[in-house]
Automatic annotation (TrEMBL):
Pfam families: TetR_C_11, TetR_N
Designated name of the protein: AcrR family transcriptional regulator
UniProt cross-references to Gene3D superfamilies, sorted A to Z: Tetracycline Repressor, domain 2
Boundaries of every HTH tetR-type domain copy: 1-61
Length: 206
């Protein structure tokens, strides 16, 4: 494994077990088997590492999937695409919620983190923005209701996935209800598309 990949993998482990707020570059470098100097040859700071963990260091395929959404406009089933996005989003938020939640406990750190993400033109809103663009394109192609608000629809679907991940983590592993993710995702999309299919063409999004 390359040096950078080892650092990202170690950062994902440390951040997942300690939370973002309590993770340090020194601890991450040690977990990767390198010095902090080596870490800083690849990453500017902890925020750079956090962004890399989100994009590269977690299981799932949400980021690549979102990047490919423009290629899917007019292709295949809108329903199937949205279910795939929902499954990936649930997995993404299930993995990242334990990492990011701790930063909200420290206002100064949260503001510094926000500023660093703005500087890099990153942030959680990128997910709903990408999905909203896809929905707008499918609406304009006539495959969704012409009255659909793409941003609201994206917020509803991604928000449901985030809520599901949060509620799944809150009770603890022993009390967690193990409803299959594909069933949860299908239910979210079915509810969303119930009012989004083109009038008189209810099967177009299916």
């Amino acid at each position: 494994m390359e040096t950078r990949d080892r650092i990202v993998s170690a950062a994902a482990h440390v951040m997942r077990t300690r939370g973002l707020a309590r993770s340090t570059t020194k601890e991450i470098a040690k977990a990767a088997g390198f010095s902090e100097a080596t870490l800083y040859k690849h990453f500017r700071d902890k925020t750079d590492l956090f962004v890399a963990v989100l994009r590269e260091g977690l299981p799932g395929n949400l980021q690549p999937l979102l990047a490919r959404l423009p290629e899917r406009v007019g292709q295949g089933s809108v329903r199937a695409t949205l279910e795939e996005v929902a499954r990936a989003a649930i997995a993404f938020y299930t993995d990242t919620f334990p990492i990011a939640a701790s930063v909200f406990s420290e206002p100064a750190l949260l503001e510094a983190h926000r500023a660093a993400l703005r500087e890099r033109q990153r942030g959680p809103a990128a997910i709903t923005t990408a999905l909203a663009r896809y929905l707008a394109a499918e609406r304009d192609a006539g495959r969704l209701d012409p009255g659909l608000d793409p941003q609201s629809a994206a917020d509803l679907l991604i928000g449901a996935c985030l809520n599901h991940a949060f509620l799944g983590e809150f009770p603890g592993p022993r009390e967690r209800a193990e409803e299959p993710v594909h069933e949860v995702a299908a239910g979210f999309v079915q509810t969303l598309l119930g009012g989004a299919a083109p009038r008189g063409e209810a099967g177009a999004a299916g």
